[in-house]
Amino acid sequence: MLYGTSMERATERGTRRGEERRAEIVRRALEVIAERGYRGATLGAVAERVGLTQQGLLHYFPTKDSLLIAVLEERDQWDTGSARRAGGHIWPLDLLASLVDYNAMRPGIVQTFSALLGESVTDDHPARGFFTQRYDRVRADMAAILRGEFGDRLPGGLTPEAAAPLLVAVMDGLQFQWLHDRDAVDMPALFRAFVSLLGQGDEAAKG
């Protein structure tokens, strides 16, 4: 019985060390991709950054594509890219603006994500499927956020489903502009300005 307990503890420690190692590899891979882009990032460069041989890295991630997807999934967990809090509850619109504030404090993460997003539009890119599915999910979440804020119609007349792609486009588009010139583009302030426009009716928008 004691033998079994010792074995279980050893297995748990091994699993925990493996998870910690995988998390470290993902963090270092993100750094390398931020510096070189996905095409220029190699498994060898990531392995060197972590202190492993390339063969050792392949024990955790058998392909470069699997590592890339892990990086993207980790990024989504950091900023709750699906716009959901713990427990699956949809964020209110003001907390979505707080997410933009948070992204403005970590340009390296935003740069990596934006670079991969741009690269993924090619048919053969390994992240294309990830981003396609992500946008489906994010549009649905944004529609739910807008419905929670405004009901079935926004003041300007759009349905939440019609306005959701616009909200996503503003968030991602502002990130690209901000990355090119952070002094000229106040990403959090501009996002809040757009949110205020969503709350205006036809007459207010004309005025």
From TrEMBL:
<keyword id="KW-0678">Repressor</keyword>
<feature type="region of interest" description="Disordered">
    <location>
        <begin position="1"/>
        <end position="20"/>
    </location>
</feature>
<dbReference type="InterPro" id="IPR009057">
    <property type="entry name" value="Homeodomain-like_sf"/>
</dbReference>
<dbReference type="InterPro" id="IPR036271">
    <property type="entry name" value="Tet_transcr_reg_TetR-rel_C_sf"/>
</dbReference>
<keyword id="KW-0238">DNA-binding</keyword>
<keyword id="KW-0805">Transcription regulation</keyword>
<dbReference type="Pfam" id="PF00440">
    <property type="entry name" value="TetR_N"/>
</dbReference>
<feature type="domain" description="HTH tetR-type">
    <location>
        <begin position="19"/>
        <end position="79"/>
    </location>
</feature>
<dbReference type="InterPro" id="IPR001647">
    <property type="entry name" value="HTH_TetR"/>
</dbReference>
<feature type="DNA-binding region" description="H-T-H motif">
    <location>
        <begin position="42"/>
        <end position="61"/>
    </location>
</feature>
<dbReference type="InterPro" id="IPR039538">
    <property type="entry name" value="BetI_C"/>
</dbReference>
<keyword id="KW-0804">Transcription</keyword>
<protein>
    <submittedName>
        <fullName>TetR/AcrR family transcriptional regulator</fullName>
    </submittedName>
</protein>
<feature type="compositionally biased region" description="Basic and acidic residues">
    <location>
        <begin position="9"/>
        <end position="20"/>
    </location>
</feature>
<dbReference type="Pfam" id="PF13977">
    <property type="entry name" value="TetR_C_6"/>
</dbReference>
<dbReference type="InterPro" id="IPR050109">
    <property type="entry name" value="HTH-type_TetR-like_transc_reg"/>
</dbReference>
